[in-house]
Amino acid sequence: MGLRKKLVVEPGTRVRLKDVDAAFHGDYASAELAKDDLAKNVVRLAELQQKLYGEKKHALLVVLQGIDAAGKDGTCWHVMAAMNPQGTSVTGFKQPTAEEHQHDFLWRVHPHAPGLGEVAVFNRSHYEDVLVVRVHDLVPKEVWSERYDIINDFETLLTTAGVTILKFFLYITPEEQLARFAQRLDDPARQWKISEADYKERAFWDQYIAAYEDMLAKCSTKHAPWYVIPSNHKWFRNLAVSKIIEETLDEMNLKLPAPTVDLEQIRKDYHQAVKAEKGKA
Ligand code: AMP
Ligand code: MG
Known about the structure:
With 281 residues, this protein is an alpha/beta fold. It has helices at 3-7, 31-55, 72-81, 98-101, 132-135, 141-144, 147-160, 174-186, 197-202, 205-219, 234-251, 263-280; strands at residues 59-66, 88-92, 119-123, 163-171, 226-230. It has a single domain, classed as Rossmann fold. The chain contains twelve helices and five strands. Helix 3 packs across helix 11 (234-251). It catalyses: [phosphate](n) + ATP = [phosphate](n+1) + ADP.
């Protein structure tokens, strides 16, 4: 079975995360054995993005969610490293500003949706409004519980404008999270990532899992599916995400646009210009 089929949350189904193996690594016995496939995916992603950019008939939105240290930043880096910065964007969604709080929860999100020809990555997203907001009672239940339908409608709206949406939930175990926190403490290159909230949020693990399960059940749709990415192994996470993006772009049948000029005439003009240049010499 292909990775995409294995990892997608079929619309209308409910995933129990405790039944998901966060350390799953498919048919690959080790990172070393996955290296070539990963490199191939990255090359393909670069080619496909170039076509998407040239053709300007489709857009791609990649949504990343996951608990602290699940690897959202690492996935962004990996996926975007494959692509030309021209025509791509990454938006990280943090605590809403005072101004953002004065608006509906999608107000700050919509301007970052990709236009035709573009790839956009959301590092956290509008889903925070049914995750952290729900876990910490930042708005009443009557308010957040309405948001799943609102989100589905919003994502439908984007697809009517040519946006293909892929949503990745990066799933790690609490033990793996603790190991990554320890790594951050010891590695000067990672210490800046430590936040006081990290350990406090761990106390809410079960509430987060319940919120993630609802998000996956209510908002995995045919046009904007959720994928649960086993992410204890960073290399498998990168491999799975890059493969799913690659296959999705591939299915768009992207084609570079035909030239808008008469190439024969331009060739004649070119040869004449070369001749004239030589005549001068
Ligand atoms: P980080 O991604 O580690 O930079 O942290 C960003 C923080 O912003 C996380 O703690 C998120 O839970 C929080 N955040 C993002 N969106 C929202 C939101 N809509 N409401 C409240 N907190 C949010
Ligand atoms: Mg953080």
